[in-house]
Specification:
The chain has 305 residues and is an alpha/beta fold. The chain contains 10 helices and 9 strands. Bound molecules: N-carbamoyl-L-aspartate (NCD).
Length: 305
């Protein structure tokens, strides 16, 4: 297993053994989230965000700083030379001189892979269009494992925009490394992409179900996502599905007491705030696990552990 210098472009590039190693190293970071460490002293991370972000960008930054490293970057490309017409390849060739690792988010699929080909420093894909968001999948797995003590044997239900949501694509691939049953619930036009279904079906059982109510009693994890309004080619299509699902106390009244509700966030209206104070709600705890996971990942890719 080699992590130092490695690009994190797709979760499909990882074996189960590698994923488990990442989760194991992340666990070691838990006590360091407050205490800090000098593990990454002198290292610089560059955040290049061509799309909005709160958690991913800030958690990479916080993770780097907690480990003694430093951060540079932009979250508004209109303030960079991209605005003048510089292409991404040139931007990468420049930024690699200033940093030891680049975290990149872009609205286009395939951009992280392309950047990794140009870059001499490792690229972490922080979201590539509707395609993938591998570090989110890792932190989702970390959350499930920490909260439920295992991943194998669980019934996992995805609810929401399975077509344009990148987190569900990466998480489906990641779960395919385990022995789980995956249930999919979504509006008809937002069903899971065919190519993802085909790949994942080779390894685990997938069931596309009509509604949450029919499956909620079996669910160990309910993974809810927002409708990706900005990715709809036609705004009228969005209007048709807007507000079409919402998790309330009523939706989960037959749930197991150990049910975990996860959400990559941001939440719009798909989880009613009344859920927040129940023991089912893990989406804010997940934010902390995200910091821990990214600390572990940075330490691995930068060769500090
Ligand atoms: C997600 C993303 O950017 O894909 N956010 C995140 O990183 N936690 C989910 C979303 O935007 O819906």
């Amino acid at each position: 297993m080699r992590f130092e210098g490695r690009d994190i472009v797709s979760i499909k590039d990882f074996t189960r053994e590698e994923v488990e190693h990442i989760l194991k190293i992340a666990k070691l970071m838990e006590p360091l989230t407050r205490k800090g460490s000098d593990l990454l002293n002198g290292k610089i991370l560059a955040n290049l965000f061509f799309e909005p972000s709160t958690r991913t960008k800030l958690s990479f930054e916080a993770a780097m700083r907690r480990l003694g490293g430093e951060c540079i970057g932009f979250s508004d490309p209109t303030t960079s030379s991209i605005k003048k017409g510089e292409n991404l390849a040139d931007t990468i060739r420049v930024v690699e001189n200033y940093s030891d690792i680049i975290v990149l988010r872009h609205r286009l699929e395939g951009v992280a892979r392309m950047a990794a080909e140009f870059s001499t420093v490792p690229i972490i894909n922080a979201g590539s269009g509707s395609e993938e968001h591998p570090t989110q999948a890792l932190l989702d797995l970390y959350t499930i494992n920490r909260e439920l003590g295992r991943i194998d044997g669980l019934n996992i239900v995805f609810v929401g925009d399975l077509r344009y949501g990148r987190t569900v694509h990466s998480l489906a691939y990641a779960l395919a490394l385990y022995d789980v049953n995956l249930y999919l619930v979504s509006p008809e036009i937002l069903r899971m992409r065919k190519e993802v279904l085909k790949d994942v079906k080779k390894r685990i059982k997938i069931f596309e179900v009509e509604n949450i109510e029919s499956i909620i009693h079996k669910a160990d994890v309910l993974y809810v996502t927002r409708i990706q309004k900005e990715r709809f080619p036609d705004p009228e299509e969005y209007e048709k599905v807007k507000g079409s699902y919402r998790i309330t106390l009523d939706t989960i009244r037959h749930a197991k007491s150990s049910l975990n509700i996860l959400h990559p966030l941001p939440r719009i209206d798909e989880i009613s705030p009344e859920i927040d104070s129940t023991p089912y709600a893990k989406y804010f705890k997940e934010v902390w696990y995200g910091l821990v996971l990214r600390m572990g990942l940075l330490a691995l890719v930068l060769g500090a552990v």
